[in-house]
Inverse folding.
């Protein structure tokens, strides 16, 4: 359990936000498609992404890690005698389904008790439709998943959900399919896969919501990448600043990919003073985000949900501190994240004295006075960190904290720059 003390105003520069989780997973996996050694620096050394790295190793890649740069080389995906454990990571499991569907051999993917409850049909069904041999519990929906690599047919797939995980799984399958493939999504989801694979030389064209993928004629060029900091992790500190009067914070080295910073844009619409500065551009724009406190007002969020889906729990803390009624709609996907984030957010805010109305696809939060409570994370890292941030306003006890190591191992180190905490 952690006990958080309310914070005084602060002024900070933080350059140690955890490296981006989505890009770290992809760097490890995509290295297996290259014809040489990929070099990855600032790889996220958290449970989720280290699990992906371990799986890549089990699939035959050679990994040299000097603690700073991870070098990965592979001469093709090899069958493994190990069960491939994705831990808590939906991204790991769903993307590996796409990558392994066409590989030579038989593979088993599993995960922790939370991941084994999350829906996998969203990838197993479209993959099976193009010839992949996948099976799983509950008619293909629940891990463990077994995969027997097969030849895949070209496809034109129109997805009903805006999910980067589904899109990425299908793009990885398309690279080995027997013709040109197209994937269309209802709203643009994060696009790291397209950017990184194109950077490696894959023939991928994006036209609005439609992505066209030509199968790989040969292996791709290796990746050379410094993983930028994760905007979803940085956002906890953005909210910390936005709810602590007279504070400001400069968050450095973050990916400023437009599909990832929508939560900062929402916070800006609520009144926070936010500036962005691009300092680099490799695969995607990277730079600094400067947040300054200003009183917050309520907001309605109903569009581009996938651009801020991971940040909605933290944003709910800003909404609780804002004047007026904030509404989140069209966010049913929250129910199938690491926890059912609609019910975990609603219950925890209610326990903290905030009036909240729950809907099938979101919630309505009446801004008010947060009062310290004891909140259980339900094993969900983003719930744990969001309510620790709430504690900066009102004091808070949060339990079940190991999950924070899945994405942000140095979170406590950084939070102690803002306030005193007691961990026990
Ligand atoms: C991710 C995509 C999102 C996001 C997850 C990471 C990715 O999930 O919630 O944390 O790296 O592709 P969906 O694609 O299921 O929306």
């Amino acid at each position: 359990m952690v006990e958080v003390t309310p914070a005084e105003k602060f002024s900070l520069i933080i350059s140690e936000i955890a490296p981006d989780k989505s890009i770290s997973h992809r760097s490890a996996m995509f290295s297996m498609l290259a014809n040489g050694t990929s070099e990855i620096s600032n790889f996220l050394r958290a449970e989720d992404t280290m699990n992906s790295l371990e799986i890549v190793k089990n699939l035959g890649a050679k990994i040299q890690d000097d603690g700073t740069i991870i070098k990965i080389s592979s001469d093709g995906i090899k069958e493994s005698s190990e069960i491939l454990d994705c831990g808590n990571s939906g991204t790991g499991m769903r993307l590996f389904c796409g990558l392994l569907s066409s590989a030579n051999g038989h593979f088993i993917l599993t995960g922790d008790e939370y991941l084994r409850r999350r829906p996998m049909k969203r990838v197993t069904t479209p993959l099976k439709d193009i010839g992949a041999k996948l099976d799983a519990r509950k008619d293909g929906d629940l891990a463990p998943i077994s995969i027997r690599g097969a030849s895949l047919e070209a496809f034109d797939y129109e997805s009903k959900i805006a999910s980067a995980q589904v899109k990425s799984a299908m793009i990885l399958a398309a690279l080995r399919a027997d013709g040109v493939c197209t994937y269309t999504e209802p709203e643009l989801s994060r696009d790291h896969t397209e950017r990184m694979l194109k950077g490696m030389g894959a023939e991928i064209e994006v036209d609005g919501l439609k992505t066209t993928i030509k199968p790989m004629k040969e292996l791709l060029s290796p990746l050379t990448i410094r993983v930028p900091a994760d905007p979803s992790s940085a956002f906890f500190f953005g909210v910390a600043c936005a709810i602590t009067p007279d504070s400001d914070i400069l968050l450095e080295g973050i990916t400023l990919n437009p599909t990832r910073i929508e939560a900062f844009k929402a916070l800006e619409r609520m009144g926070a003073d936010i500036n962005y500065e691009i300092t680099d551009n490799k695969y995607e724009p990277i730079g600094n985000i400067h947040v300054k406190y200003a009183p917050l007002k309520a907001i309605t969020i109903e569009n581009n949900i996938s651009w801020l889906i991971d940040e909605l729990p933290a944003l709910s803390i800003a909404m609780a501190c804002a004047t007026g009624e904030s509404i989140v709609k069209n966010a049913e996907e929250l129910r199938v994240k690491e926890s059912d984030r609609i019910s975990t957010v609603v219950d925890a805010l209610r326990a903290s004295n905030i009036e909240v109305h729950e809907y099938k696809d979101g919630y309505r939060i009446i801004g008010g006075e947060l009062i310290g409570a004891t909140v259980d994370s339900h094993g969900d890292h983003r719930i744990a960190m969001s309510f620790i941030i709430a504690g900066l306003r009102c004091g808070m006890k949060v339990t079940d904290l190991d999950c924070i190591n899945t994405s942000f191992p140095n979170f406590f180190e950084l939070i102690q720059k803002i306030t005193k905490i007691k961990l026990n």
